[in-house]
Amino acid sequence: AKFDFLYVKGAEVARGQIMASSVGLLKLVVDAQCQTILGVQIVGDGATELIHLGQMAMANSTVEELACAIFNFPTLAEAYRLAAQKAIGLRSKAPDACCENVGVPDGVHA
């Protein structure tokens, strides 16, 4: 099995910049083939307040759903969305380019 490791540093998140925090890291471990979230590791300010989101994502979300989820801004939790966007290659596209029909039932238009 092949795994992707996606990193987001504290300075990449707006809240991290506001806090002047240059330390901190969120890492998603993603199955490269089926894009399921296999693990999350967090180091830095607020890690204990953020790890439960990773547990929920592993149990209930795909990496694409996480990439398109709405997070409060500016918060450190936004690092999850940024890491997931890296996983599916969206960081260079428009922020809403991926999310048109994620989680929308068949026959319903977003």
Q: Tell me the total number of β-strands.
A: 3
- Uncertain residue ranges: 104-110
Query: Order of strands in the sheet with the most strands?
Result: 1-2-3
Shape: globular
Structural class: alpha+beta
Largest sheet: 3 strands, antiparallel
What is the N-to-C order of secondary-structure elements (H for helix, E for strand)?
Answer: EHEEHHH
What is the mean pLDDT?
Answer: 82
Oligomer: single chain
What percentage of residues falls in helices of 4 or more residues?
A: 25-40%
Describe the structure.
This protein has 110 residues and is of the alpha+beta class. It has 4 helices and 3 strands. It has a 3-stranded antiparallel beta sheet with strand order 1-2-3, with helices on one face. Strand 2 and strand 3 form a beta hairpin. The chain starts with a strand and ends in a 23-residue tail after the last helix.
Name a few traits of the molecule.
single chain, alpha+beta, three-stranded antiparallel sheet, globular, disordered C terminus, 110 residues
Topology overview:
Blueprint: E1 3-9, H1 14-18, E2 25-31, E3 37-43, H2 47-60, H3 63-68, H4 78-87
Antiparallel strand pairs: 1-2, 2-3
In short:
This protein has four helices and three strands. The protein is an alpha+beta fold and 110 residues long.
